[in-house]
């Protein structure tokens, strides 16, 4: 059973289009994240949600809009795609971050987005 | 601000030899440190973490990491490398700057190449 799944795995699209990436976790976690990995493999957080509530928004352009219909899903919608949006997008989930810091984030397989 | 650095872009090791992938960190207070591995075209897999306690942390696939507070390091080690260990390795620190968001700050990654 896949713990954190993402669809689609690959996404090739034209500039200006709108696209969505879906993420689902079956780990029973309350917190979900989106990370972006650029062409140099650098990873940076974009968003996180606790129980459908936005917790982190890391100065991401407002063309990116996350939506969490329930705590097991966190989708990423991107409007007016630009060339610079080409990257690998990873979803992750964890227990609610607490003072112990012990919660581990588990990552999905990634969605490889190429904007032409 | 919390940060983590991986000083080597690539590490080359012969199969059967010990391997070390270096990581140094900069945090205020006690750090929460993680190692992840990314195989080609795959998501990140959790290897191990240091929260508190013993400085030597054991993780998946025979990997271990040594927390050294005086040197602010958390190097990943394995006594005997396998060709299948060849992958991209990320060190990460849990951001404690903002309250309990769970945000991970990643190093730039180190490619491990194990040659037969």
Structural class of chain A: mainly beta
Backbone CA Rg of chain B: 14 Å
Spatial gap, N to C terminus of chain B: 41 Å
Helix content of chain A: under 10%
Q: What's the total helix number of chain A? A: 0
Fraction of residues in H or I helices of chain B? under 10%
How much is the average pLDDT of chain B?
Answer: 92
What is the makeup of the main sheet of chain B? 6 strands, mixed
Most extensive interface: A-B, 31 and 25 residues
Number of strands of chain B: 12
Major sheet description of chain A = 7 strands, mixed
What is the string of SSEs of chain A from the N terminus onward? Answer: EEEEEEEEEEE
Shape descriptor of chain B: globular
Low-confidence stretches of chain A: none
* Backbone shape of chain A: globular
Q: How are helices and strands ordered from N to C of chain B?
A: EEEEEEEEEEEE
Portion of residues in beta strands of chain A equals over 45%
Assembly type of the chains comes to heterodimer
Report the span from N to C terminus of chain A. Answer: 34 Å
Flag low-confidence runs of chain B. none
Helices, strands, pairings?
The complex is a heterodimer of chains A (116) and B (116).
Chain A: E1 4-7, E2 10-13, E3 19-25, E4 31-37, E5 43-50, E6 53-57, E7 64-70, E8 73-78, E9 87-94, E10 106-107, E11 111-115
Parallel strand pairs in A: 2-11
Antiparallel strand pairs in A: 1-3, 3-8, 4-5, 4-9, 5-6, 7-8, 9-10, 9-11
Chain B: E1 3-5, E2 10-14, E3 19-21, E4 24-26, E5 33-38, E6 44-50, E7 56-58, E8 64-68, E9 73-78, E10 87-94, E11 104-106, E12 110-115
Polypeptide structure, described:
- The complex is a heterodimer of chains A (116) and B (116).
- Chain A is built from no helices and eleven strands.
- With 116 residues, chain A is mainly β.
- In chain A, strand 7 and strand 8 (73-78) form a beta hairpin.
- The model of chain A has no long low-confidence stretch (mean pLDDT 91).
- By secondary structure, chain B is mostly beta strands.
- Chain B has no helices and twelve strands.
- Chain B has strands at residues 3-5, 10-14, 19-21, 24-26, 33-38, 44-50, 56-58, 64-68, 73-78, 87-94, 104-106, 110-115.
- The mean pLDDT of chain B is 92.
- Chain A binds chain B through residues 4, 31, 33, 40-45, 48, 55-56, 90, 92, 94, 96-110, 112, and chain B through 32, 34, 36, 38, 41-46, 49, 51, 88, 90, 94, 96, 98, 100-104, 106, 108-109.
């Amino acid at each position: 059973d896949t713990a954190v799944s993402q669809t689609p795995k690959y996404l090739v699209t034209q500039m200006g289009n709108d696209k969505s990436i879906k993420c689902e976790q079956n780990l029973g976690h309350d917190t979900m994240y989106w990370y972006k990995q650029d062409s140099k493999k650098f990873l940076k957080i974009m968003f996180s949600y606790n129980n459908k509530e936005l917790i982190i928004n890391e100065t991401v352009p407002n063309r990116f809009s996350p939506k969490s219909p329930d705590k097991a899903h966190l989708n990423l919608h991107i409007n007016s795609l630009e060339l610079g949006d080409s990257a690998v997008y990873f979803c992750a989930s964890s227990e609610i971050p607490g003072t112990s810091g012990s919660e581990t984030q588990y990552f999905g397989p990634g969605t490889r987005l190429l904007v032409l | 601000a919390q940060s983590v650095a991986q000083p080597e872009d690539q590490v080359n090791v012969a199969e059967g030899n010990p391997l070390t992938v270096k990581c140094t960190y900069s945090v205020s207070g006690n750090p929460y440190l993680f190692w992840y591995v990314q195989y080609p075209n795959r998501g990140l897999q959790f290897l191990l973490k240091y929260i508190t306690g013993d400085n030597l942390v054991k993780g998946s696939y025979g990997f271990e990491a040594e927390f050294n507070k005086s040197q602010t390091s958390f190097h990943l080690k394995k006594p005997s490398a396998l060709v299948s260990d060849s992958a991209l390795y990320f060190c990460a620190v849990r951001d404690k700057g903002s309250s309990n968001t769970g945000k991970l700050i990643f190093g730039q990654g180190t490619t491990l190449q194990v040659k037969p």
